[in-house]
Specification:
The chain is α+β, with helices and mostly antiparallel strands and 147 residues long. Helices cover 19% and strands 37% of the residues. The chain is built from one helix and six strands; from the N terminus they run H-E-E-E-E-E-E. The strands form two sheets. A three-stranded antiparallel β-sheet has the order 1-2-5, with no helix packed on it. The N and C termini lie far apart (96 Å). The model has no long low-confidence stretch (mean pLDDT 83).
């Protein structure tokens, strides 16, 4: 028996490839100097805008917080550990909440943080609760007004 042969379309069925001015078979021309400069300027502008948004966000909200963990000690208290990221020398007040299974707030405490010598500092606090908590969150960390 003979081996199967895959059908081959006629050579000019889809037209013939034309060579561009530079001899390329796909007919595309290379980018000119003006197009390369325009692309470079657009990329530089995009990087500049991204950097500006980053700096503006940091200026507007200089304090960020990250939960490290919590430990429900008993029905009346929960230990919370969190990290605060802010410029050295800054002070802030963080509100830590304990929540029940229904997400109802069962305890809250305001924790003054800073000033610290490093950008990142770790804090631990015990939140007293009115009933057993199932989770804890740092609701906010804000720099107090200097008024």
């Amino acid at each position: 028996m003979s081996e199967p042969v895959s059908p081959t379309p006629p050579a000019d069925r889809y037209g013939t490839a034309r060579a561009g001015q530079d001899g390329r078979q796909d007919g595309r021309r290379p980018l000119g100097t003006g197009a390369k400069v325009a692309i470079g300027a657009a990329l530089a502008a995009a990087v500049g805008v991204a950097a500006w948004f980053s700096v503006e966000q940091t200026r507007r909200d200089p304090v960020t917080v990250e939960m490290v963990g919590f430990d429900v000690r008993d029905a009346e208290q929960v230990d919370v550990t969190f990290q605060v990221h802010m410029p050295p020398g800054t002070t802030a007040v963080c509100e830590v909440e304990a929540l029940a299974q229904s997400y109802a707030q069962v305890g809250t405490v305001e924790v003054p943080v800073g000033p610290a010598e490093q950008q990142t500092s770790t804090y631990s606090v015990t939140v007293r609760t009115s009933e057993e908590a199932t989770t804890a969150v740092v609701e906010s960390c804000d720099v107090p007004d200097a008024s």
